[in-house]
Fold these 2 entries.
Entry 1:
Amino acid sequence: MRKITKITDNTKIKNFLKRAKYFEKLGLNSYMLPIQNAASSKVLVDGQELLMLGSYSYLGLITHPEIIKVGHEAMDKYGVGAGGVRLLTGTTDLHHTLEKKISEFKRTEDAMVLSSGYVTNMTLISTLFGKDDLIIIDKYDHQSIYDGCILSKADWKRFNHNDMDNLAEVLEEHRENYKRVIVIVDGVYSMDGDIAPMPEIIELAKQHKAFTMVDEAHSIGTIGPNGRGIDDYFNLEPGAIDIYMGTLSKAIPSIGGYIAANKDVITYLKFNSNAFIFSAALPPVSAAVALKAIEIIETDIERIRALQKNYTHFINGVKELGYDTLKSKDTPIVPVIIGNDVKTFRFAKQMRKAGILVPPIVYPAVPLDAGRLRCCVMATHTEEEIDYILAAMEKIGKNLKVI
Ligand code: PMP
């Protein structure tokens, strides 16, 4: 066998590097642009002020003065890190208070927090499920759910995105062969901006004696009359979903992930999940910030309304211009389909020239010719800003013959 001397001497790596160089040469790289201030609705990149149309801080809480104050106070009291893993010496009273708050917010018996949303999915799925179990996931579920399935050693199957007939088929065909079966979906899909039809999923799961889990990374703080997420949106009974997972890094402007479920599930996970036992605890300052943010989401209904008004105004405007926005509805994520990757990168670059920062999403994250701008609307955008963005999208879209 030929001896390889360079670590990158591998077809997959070489193909990637070639593609990256090609876009760099065209001056179309839009990734990892360094933002020089807080990631709120206006940001500085290379000294240029840009309107942010891609932040996960949907409620614009990153710069909320009360949250910043709480963060300073937590740092004064607890220092800058946890200094240990949760199971041993990394748990503070703030972690307990945050977990209690999350369980109340999601109306479950108990909750736990970990230091990354990504790791939360991986550890939760792989700790609870294994041999003899079947995990059924929506094809468009987040990568961390896929990774959790792979790590779990359980069997896993996919159903077509939001396709309830296909989910029923998968359940009918495979349910009998397994002891435990769980259906895992995202509440709001991060690339398409649509919502999982939770009442139908719960009903199908019930019929087949399967459990349900939802990833609320993008639904918490954004959907439902009170911004409380998927159960609020569909007016579900408490406990209608077996396991709620969510992140503390989006509408809640901190870092980390949570699991909310019944007491036995959480107790088992706390003592058995590797990421809880072997990885450093969420820094107390991040816990304090997340806690305050949830209190604000619970009380500042005006902010929720502003977000919902803004995303409705934006998507109506984009549709009126003639863009394809897939099935996005009632969420702050609005995919605007552009086409192939070169065109999508060009569009993003022209948007930047017009003073708007929006991330282009291309293959392999999305299908080959479904490159898109993933527009994320915030509560802190003004109506004038949204109208300005729409006007720019009209001009650029016509220019590039997308509309
Ligand atoms: N789930 C979904 C649906 C996500 O979109 C993300 C992050 N984009 C995660 C989980 C991981 O969360 P975090 O970024 O907080 O690690």
Entry 2:
Amino acid sequence: MTKPTFHLIGLPTDRNSSFERGPALAPPAIRAALWSDRGNLACEDGQEIGHDFLLEDRGDLPLTEAPTDDALIRTGVAASLAAGAIPLLLGGDHAVTFPIVEAVAAQHGPVTILHFDAHPDLYDLFEGNPRSHASPFARIMEAGLATRLVQVGIRTLNRHCREQAERFGVEIVPLADFTPDSVPVLAGPLYLSIDLDGIDPSEAPGVSHPEPGGLTTREVLAVLRRQTAPVVAADIVELNPRFDAHDRTAILAAKLLREVAALAARNRR
Ligand code: MN
Ligand code: MN
């Protein structure tokens, strides 16, 4: 059996950010952490990049911070899927998830989504922008691209977003008394979306909207490890290198990338 192949695709864009710019600078920072001799290419379950699965770096898409970027993202993701690879997208701000999931659903049909974030990103409009990084999951649910959306790490739910969650049937796992086994194990095809601000700012300081009281890295890994469905694509978004401290958040993003790939490789077997 051929080894699972992942395509690493950078999305250097932050035009739909609402407060700070900076996530457009994230892809090279994550790549530098991933390939740095500071660490190695082993995953926690013993799989190794290059041995148990292949990780091909396809570079960054030539985004221009124009509305045409959405089509570039859809085309790039579609090409990766058509090649039989599992695309791993490096944001960019969280707005990128909508065109990514459009492309994934065009290939696989509606997906289940496991979404880590401090924020539900369900605004109908944020500051008048329907494509805001605060809105991608409203667009995804309206378009019928997901059969189930489970959100983990949410700790900023206001009235509007609570109404939106009810309207779309979004499942928000309570953070009070959180344990990893309180997160449902989803059927596939499974899409993973990791906004780094879902993790506590003590571990992930390099984000635009730090929110105390977040998940630990260990909890995120425990939630991921319980998932058994085929993973068809994933994103890691919202790293803001301008606010990072000694590259800690970039190093965390690179670790999560390895672990997501290891999970997807395991679940394909
Ligand atoms: Mn987000
Ligand atoms: Mn967030």
